[in-house]
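Working notes for the structural subgroup meeting. M.R. asked for a predicted model of this chain before we commit to crystallization trials. I am recording the input and output together here so anyone reviewing the notebook later can reproduce the run.

Input as submitted:
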Amino acid sequence: MIEICRDHSTNVKRWRDGQMVLRWCAAGMLEATKQFRRVNGYLHLPALRVALDTHINGPVTAPCDTEQTAA
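Returned structure, recorded in token form:
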């Protein structure tokens, strides 16, 4: 995407202000969206989110007293 934005704005010889830079960058991003592809397995992302949430928010167990800790 960055390369397409760079190629799209190569003909600009004089950058006037920050708004102009943003407009050209947005135009390049719109041009780049035509080449985007879906991520393999994108239909499984909601299930992955639920699994990660349950794993992260699951019960936290205290360390066992019999374990040796290195100092």
